[in-house]
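Suppose a colleague, Dr. K., hands you the sequence of a protein chain of 338 amino acids and asks what its three-dimensional shape might be. Before reaching for any lab equipment, you can write down a predicted structure in token form. Begin with the sequence itself:
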Amino acid sequence: MEQRNAMDASKNHYDTLGVARDATADQIRKAYRRLARKYHPDVSKEADAQSRMREINEAYEVLGDAEKRADYDAQAERIRRGAGMGGSDGFMPPPGWEDGFSFFRSGGSGAGNEAPDLGAFFSDLFGAASAGPAGSGMGRRAQAAAGADRHAAIEVPLEFALTGGEREIQLQAVEIDAGGRPRPVTRTLQVRLPRGVRPGQQIRLAGQGMPGTGGQPAGDLYLEVRIAPHPRYRVEERDLVMDLPVTPSEAALGAEVEVPLPGGGIGQVKVPAAARAGMKLRLKGRGLGGDLYLVLAIAVAPADSAAARAAYEQLAKATAGFDPRRDMGARSGAATAA
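The predicted structure, expressed as tokens, is then:
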């Protein structure tokens, strides 16, 4: 019963995204996009939009990556079974211990990228039980070992990534309480991010990893940078991408149009004549160390007035020889319903 309660209190990323545990990668991605459109603080009117978006991003960070998802599922299964957690007293880590340092990877003891053995992790960190009475859980002694490196993720708004600067973060770390048992504690750190920091970029904080034992130094903390979803721009490595709606006349005749720039301000871009939907225009140096790409989309005005309808009818007559479905073998104006 205690194990079930501990599992219920832990974060369930599948519930956060509203997907089943056997959901496909495509289902997870679609659920994330749907929730991001609803809760992004820049567009949402929900009172808890900011906190919900943070939970949604955290869940997608895990479930959207095949390797991290496998690690998460393995940890959840260990917690559910209450097995392999180290010590003869059946120790269960308190809920929330994995926050911040979600996916432990040893830095220097030859560990690879396999799912972590949490029993070995706690044994290495806090010392194995010495030869005492079976099941007593007493006689633990610290072993001299350097602290392991740890990995966590930090999410920043796109505007902050463009300018860089200092940011305060809070992470859950593991410490030993007065009874010699591990417990999660909140740590507040000041992190300086460079201008134009990119998704996936690693920020190293020396000595901020797991503590060493027996007087050995602590490991390092590596922060993987994530860019929060933006309602207008998409991040593609060093570049930014934005959809740019243009009217049919702007696309056909060419035009100069205004575009909002990342970080603020308005820019001018020239749409060439005979432009097609999907064409990319580039604004050099307006990305995250790269460029801003504008993907043209044709926005058709509704024929919601007599004048607009008359204009469309006149356009249809003037362009009667144009058949956009010629390459499909269809005849213009001869479409039939099945």
